[in-house]
Amino acid sequence: MYLEYYAKTANGYCKPLKNLRENPTQPTINIRTWKKEMSTEFVSNYIHSRGLNYSLGFVLFDTNGRPRTLFALDKTKDANFTDTELMTLSLVVPQLNNLHKNFFCQQTRQQAVNQLFWETTDLTARELEIVNLLCQGISPAVISQSLYISQSTTNKHIAHIYKKMHVSNIQELLVRMLAKD
User: Fold this and answer.
1) Of 72, 78, 94, 101, which residue has the fewest beta carbons closer than 10 angstroms?
2) What is the per-residue pLDDT across 75-105, written as a single tens digit (0 to 9) for each?
3) Ranges for the HTH luxR-type domain (predicted)?
4) What are the structural domains, with CATH classification, of the chain?
């Protein structure tokens, strides 16, 4: 609501800073005492009309360290935020920020994995051969013998396959390979 109102004010002095960057050692938490603010259209028409005395804002950042989400906690009581509330927020905000980053990171990673087809993973001819054998239930040891390659070479091929297919074990590989057919 703040940002929508800010955008309509003439001076817009309360806009979030575009150049604000994440400080990993200290969360970005800011308290505004509205009684001490100079009277502007925003303060008189928005803040005072709602009876707000204090606002505490904190920012959550994306994986690139840029501000992504802004929270504002408002108080109508004539008592500023307590030391306990500030200490709690200083402990909670970094945790929220990590969850926030993981949300965007997992969302991006999951979209990429969902769009992954085995035909487009650039598996080499040898890797396709090994995947075919793995899907038939043949063990890596037997694959090594049948292809006349060492067990460590087979394991390296399997590791490359897992990486390209974004899986971490044979079961996930099988599900991905069989689901796309």
Assistant:
1) 78
2) 999 999 999 999 999 888 888 888 877 776 6
3) 116-181
4) 2-103 (3.30.450.40), 118-179 (1.10.10.10)
